Every structure is written in structure tokens, then in C-alpha cells.
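User: Before I run my own analysis I want an independent prediction to cross-check against. Here's the chain; please return only the C-alpha cells and, at the end, one sentence I can use as a sanity check.
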Amino acid sequence: MKKIGILLLVLILPAMLFASGRPTEGNLRFGWWGNVARDDRTNAVIRLFETVNPGVKVEAEAGVAFAAYWDRLATQSASGNLPDVIQQDVSWIRLYNSNGQLQDLNQYARAGGAIDLTNWPAGAVAAGRIGNTLAGLILATNAWGMIVDPAVLQKANITIDDTTWTWTDYERIATQIYQNTQVQTIPPFNIRQVIEHISRQFGSPCFNDDNRTLGITNNQAAYNAVRDYMNMEMRLMNAGVLYDIRDAWIQGKAMAEEPLPLGKTWNQMNWSNQLVGFQDAARRPLDYIMFPNIPGKTANGTYYRASMFISMTSRSQNKDLAARFINFFVNDLSAGRILLAERGIPVNTRIRQDIYGVLSAGDQKVADYITRIEPYTSPADPAYPSGAGEVENPLMRNIMQEILLGRLTVDNGLAQIVRDSNAVLARENR
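Assistant: C-alpha cells:
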């Protein structure tokens, strides 16, 4: 409700502050958030699209900072003056879609339509769906997993097959690494991501379809698996294997000050697009692997996450042209060679292969991972409900910290996570 409240306040700002006028036939407006580098690459793609489509003019509403972008969209929305094509985010796309401001792209993505999804993994397309509506297409993708230090693994004589390993293997490996090298294991800073990965393996999303409860609330197998995971972390903590959580969980650190770049841990749980930054901070090669699985799982927990979406607005007066522009932006090889991985690793597998040779070594490693894990993914869950950010941090994080510090038992702490999370979700999604 807080985000929606801020949005409503912004909507009463002067309507014409950022307005650029109504598009005419052959004209489009495209708005995005970003920085100078993103502006340069995006504008180059716009010029290329105009070149191959004589008579078309795309008005660029250039990138501004993330928060300022949503202020701008709110103002434009209030005056019915949204651009034809906009960049969207997982935190906002559900709200804009529920308000009827996004065009369903399904009609353009059918066989023979203006948007060709032939070279798109099914899971990546599903990430843009809200119910039966295709509210947006991923501009780039990443996935949740684990950054690891291969030098530490080699020193400890450890080899990990991330297609088969389980949390039992993880506990054994963490213990062996500590015994052989004295390098510790990272504690689970983002426990929500761990819960989500486990819950999805038992057929439940992180947040139920009612938007008011966690998926593990009424899924006993998933609940038990999360409890087993927490007990495993407690065993590592009690054995001295886990790194000091009071240091590991300090927010706002520079990457170079994190335990993994400093050589104090062998791993870091994070999104795949963070590998390059951690590798640069560590000044040594790092690898990226999938999360451990639960024996007896019924589904894959890993999924392709949208770094951001590209969407068409419902009041666009040039929908067919907007669909052609979106298709060009996400599928054209020449456009891909301009954009490269600035927004993240491209979803289109043909573009990914085409630009691979000119990517940095770090981006190549991430691209390899995104390609390799496709058989081990399942469709992403729907966009998160209001209150999800509060549930993730501070609520779950603080309770997990109390568990690891021995101030709460695993049973009581997990019950509190479910109870308090559900209370927040119910409050925010009345």
C-alpha cells in the first residue's frame, strides 16, 4: 500500500510536466530509465529502426534515474499521456497492468504476428505473463544461484555437479572446505530467495495466487523442506563453518568489502548478473552455479528472472507500429549488437550467440550459465504482490538472523516468518 500511496500522490503533480504531445500516424514515443551509456545505446537502436522504416519517427524519452522514471510515468498516466512503449519493472508491472494501462501482447506474439518469439525460451516468455495477459517481454534475464571461488574449491579438493547436488551435499562440502582451508560459508542473507527456490520445487510459488499468503503456508512438504534447510544452516553455524552474520549482513558495503572478494568465504548467494561485479571486486576468476535441490522435488526451483520488461501501453494510437518496434528491439541482430549486455544477457538465443564473441569474459560466463540452465528451469512465478519487499527485508531477514543467533528456535522462527509475512501481505492486498 505504501508504494501505491506514493504513486497516487505523484499522480496529482502538474500533468504536463513531462508530456510530449500525442503521437501522430508514423510516430512513437519510448520511455525508459537508465544512464548515459544506456541512453547512447538505446538512441542508436532508435535511429537504426527509423532508418529501416522510412517515415517513422521514434521520440526518445531518455533514461532518468529509477525513482524519477516512475514519477514521470505517474504524471503521464494521470493525464492519459503515457508513451507508446515503456520500460517496466517487476515491482510495478502488476500495478500498471491491473489499472488497464498495458496492452496484452498475446495478439502480436501469435504465429505470424509482429512479435516473433521463436528464439525465446518458454520460461522467459512466461515471466512476462500476468494471468493470461502477456504484459511485457523481458529485455534481459538472469537467474538466482551461487557465486563460488574455484581456487578455494580446488584447494579443498572439491568438485561440484550443480545439476545433481542437494543441501546435504552443500553441508558436507561447506564442512570439508572449512576443515581443509579455514574458509567459511556465507550465511543466507536473502532467506526469501531460498524459501522461494525450495517452495517452487514442491509446486508452490513464493506468494500464493491470493497475494495474501506465502506459498509454504498450505504446502506441508515445502514447509518441512524449508525447516530442514534452516536446521542445516544451524548445524553449520554451531560448527563454526558459517561466516559471522553480523558482518556478512551489513548493508551498503562496497562489493570489494564483501566476504567473498576478501577470501573469507567460498560462496555468495546472489543473482547471476552480480557475478561480473563480484569478480571485478575480487580481482580473480569466480564461477556461478545453480542452487542445491531437494530430493524428491516435483518441479525445478530455478527460473529466468526479468531484469526489466518492455511493454506497450494500452492507449497507444499506433499499436501495430509499437509491436514492430518492440520486436525490433528484442529480436533484431543489428539492434542486439548495439545493446549487447548493457541491460543484461539477451533472452533471444540467436542474439545471445551472435554477440557472444564481443562480450567481456565475465558477461560470457553469465551468458554460458543462462544458456546451460534452460533444461533445469521452470516458468517464473507471477509478479510479486504489494508488501513483498517488506516481507523480504526487513521481516524475513531479521527473523532469520534471530534464528542463527540462537534467540529463536527454527520451529518458532519459521512459524513467525509465515505468520508475520502473511499479516503484511493481507494488510497490503485488501
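Sanity check: The CA atoms of residues 230 and 410 lie 7 Å apart.
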